[in-house]
Each structure stands twice: as C-alpha cells, then as structure tokens.
Design goal:
The protein contains eleven helices and twelve strands. The protein has helices at 46-54, 82-88, 100-103, 110-121, 126-139, 145-149, 158-170, 188-205, 216-222, 240-245, 250-257, and strands at residues 4-15, 18-30, 35-39, 62-71, 75-76, 93-96, 176-180, 208-212, 225-230, 233-239, 308-309, 318-319. An eight-stranded mixed beta sheet has the order 6-7-8-3-9-10-12-11, sandwiched between helices. It has a four-stranded antiparallel beta sheet with strand order 2-1-4-5. The radius of gyration is 20 Å and the shape is globular. The two termini are 37 Å apart. The structure holds adenosine-5'-triphosphate, iron/sulfur cluster and magnesium ion. Iron/sulfur cluster binds at residues 249-250, 286, 288-289, 292, 294-295, 299, 305, 321-323.
C-alpha cells in the first residue's frame, strides 16, 4: 500500500484577476521509502500541490476545491478538520520550505524551537526535549551543536538554518518529508550536503520524501520516481531513469532537449520557447498545445488529456499526450 495517495487534487487561489486553478486534477502515489521528485517551470503548481498536503498556504487565499490526500493509517488529509491536521503536521509528515526563515521564529533560540516541536507532541520534560534537540543537530551535522542551540536564526548561515529546519522536520520521525526546493537558496557544496542528509534519512529509516526541485541533475541523482508538472497538471510520471532516458511527453522532451549535454549535476531547467498559459482561464484541450511542436487540431479540444501508459512503456511510466507516437523530428 502507498504511503500517500493523491487523487484528483484541485487547489485554487483567489486573486484580484480571478480564481487560479493552481492544481487541477493531480494524482500520484508515494511509496514507503521512496524519493519522489516534482519538476516543472515556475508557476506550474509544484508548491501549491505540496502545500495542499498539509494545507500550509501561509496566509494566501487558497483552498482545496476537490480530491483526496490519503495518508496511510491517518486518513484523507483534504477532508480533515484543521485541529486534527495540526496533529498530523510534524508527527506524520513534515514540510521543509525553500527559505528556512519562513519556518523559524526570529525571536526564539533555535534549541528552544526544536525542543518545542518535541514538547508539543511527546510527553517528555524540558531537559529531555533539549537533549533530543542537541542530538538532532548532531544528526544533521551541525558543527558545535551545543553553541548553536543558544543561537537565534539570524546568527546562523543559510546552510545552518536549513539544517535546523531539517532537524525540526526530523524531530518526530515522520514517515513523509515534503521538501520544497530545500537547497535552491544555498551554494552548491551545501546543497549537496543537505541532499545527502535527506537521502541518508531515507536509507536509514525508510522515510519517504517528496522533493520539488528545478534541477534535473538532483532528480537524476537522488529520486526514484518523478513527475513533470505543467500548468496545474502532471504531464508525465514514472521511474526517473525511464522518464529522463526515454521521455515521452513533448513538454518533457522539450525540457530535456533544452539542456546542454547529458543530465548530470546542476542541470537547472532552461526556459523553453513561449510562456505557460493562464491558470485563471487555461486554453481548452492540452495546455501545452500553444507551445507544442507536435500539436494537431484535436489537441485543443475538450478536457486536458489524462495520464495514460503508452504501448511498450515501462510499467508506471505514464504521460498525458494524445498522440500515439511523438516523432523526434519536431522535438
Ligand atoms: N499567494 C498566491 N496568491 C495567488 N495566486 C497564487 C499564490 N501562490 C500561487 N498562486 C497561483 O498558483 C500558481 C502555482 O504557484 P506555485 O507556487 O505552486 O508554483 P511553483 O510551481 O511552485 O513555482 P516556482 O517554481 O516558482 O516555485 C501560480 O502560477 C499562481 O497562479
Ligand atoms: S496532446 Fe497535442 S499539444 Fe499536447 S503534448 Fe500531445 S501533441 Fe502536444
Ligand atoms: Mg514553488
């Protein structure tokens, strides 16, 4: 059984110009011990998808308009009252934001902040929570951890702050960690260390991780399966090797074609020609059609194509293109 099953998720943002359907019918599963990567251009709904899981919209006028978020043994998070969901946060699933400062209280020493997470969920005393916080800082390889416990967030470097946030995310040993571009703001060496840390956690404890990233090199290195998102929908999903080595959706192919050389390290997504459509009034049919070199008349009719397997594709490798075959000529 999957640890997480997202079914037909729809999330809307109210904006002055109308309702943006940031997540519009997204379904995917995350298995126990799996690292699942999500990639796609800026504004395609990656964060909205992941923030929906724990309803962490940070004050934005957002709501889950439909679908299910089934967490094994816990239930449908989409239908859960806020009070109950507050118990799930941190305990069953934890979120790591791109900017660690969003997750930290600037007026509280980091040791106390980590201890608070433990005290909120476990029946332990202050001294025990503090000892656990110290151990967590050691676990995430913070140097001089005793001293760091007494520091305020602004006294730490960006890399150290993100380690503190990860320590808080790991504090209750959640089965799922959702990391939204956790290393984008950090330099390359620190990025590598942080990603290794997350991977080690998966390897040692079987923690599942959803990782949003702009870097296909990161996906290639540490993810097991991945999804490519476009304009509020998934357009391709499958095992990383299959999607990157044999991409079948024209959007994925265009993304990969825009990359110089092989997918190695530091392969940030390069913009492809044209702009993604409005999420307030998306075009009919396939949302990629205005930019797709393969588009035919029927691409722009009806509902967007659903994810489906292609003849001969590896099990679980799905894409959302109506063409039976996508030739290389126009890719
Ligand atoms: N605070 C907000 N208010 C109104 N609309 C929003 C807000 N945040 C997101 N949206 C809408 O949701 C869409 C998806 O945003 P989201 O943040 O999920 O994109 P993303 O894929 O994470 O992009 P990025 O790579 O830049 O982080 C946006 O294009 C926008 O239409
Ligand atoms: S459905 Fe049509 S427009 Fe969309 S990706 Fe396939 S060929 Fe391109
Ligand atoms: Mg985002």
């Amino acid at each position: 059984m999957s640890l997480l099953s997202i079914r037909d998720l729809r999330t809307e943002f109210q904006s002055p110009s109308g309702i943006a359907r940031a997540v519009d019918g997204v379904s995917f599963d995350v298995e126990p011990g799996e690292i699942f990567g999500i990639v796609g251009e800026s504004g395609c709904g990656k964060s909205a998808t992941c923030r929906s899981i724990l309803r962490l919209f940070g004050g934005a006028a957002a709501r889950i308009a439909g679908g299910q978020i089934l967490l094994d043994g816990v239930g449908d998070l989409a239908a859960m009252p806020e009070r109950q969901l507050a118990q799930v946060r941190g305990r069953d699933a934890a979120f790591i934001f791109q900017d660690p400062l969003t997750a930290l209280n600037p007026t509280m020493k980091v040791g106390k902040q980590i201890a608070e997470v433990i005290l909120r969920h476990r029946k332990v005393g202050r001294a025990e929570a503090r000892a656990a916080a110290l151990q967590l800082l050691r676990d995430v390889q913070v140097t001089s951890p005793e001293r760091r416990l007494e520091a305020y967030p602004h006294e730490l470097s960006g890399g150290l702050r993100q380690r503190v946030v990860i320590a808080m995310a790991l504090a209750l040993r959640p089965r799922l960690i959702i990391a939204d571009e956790p290393t984008t703001a950090l330099d390359v060496t620190v990025q590598d260390q942080i990603l290794r840390l997350l991977k080690e956690r998966r390897d040692s404890l079987g923690t599942s991780i959803i990782l949003i990233t702009h870097d296909l090199g990161v996906v290639s290195q540490i993810c097991d399966r991945m999804a490519v998102m476009y304009a509020g929908r998934l357009v391709e999903t499958g095992r990383v090797r299959e999607v990157l080595d044999a991409p079948s959706h024209p959007y994925t192919r265009a993304l990969l074609a825009a990359l110089p050389g092989q997918v190695g390290r530091d392969r940030a997504l390069t913009p492809i020609e044209g702009a993604p459509p409005s999420l307030i009034a998306p075009p009919p049919g396939c949302r990629f059609a205005p930019r797709c070199a393969h588009a035919v008349a029927r691409c722009t009719l009806g509902d967007p194509p659903p994810l489906a397997p292609r003849a001969g594709a590896a099990p679980g490798h799905l894409d959302a293109c109506i063409l039976d075959e996508v030739s290389d000529a126009a890719a």
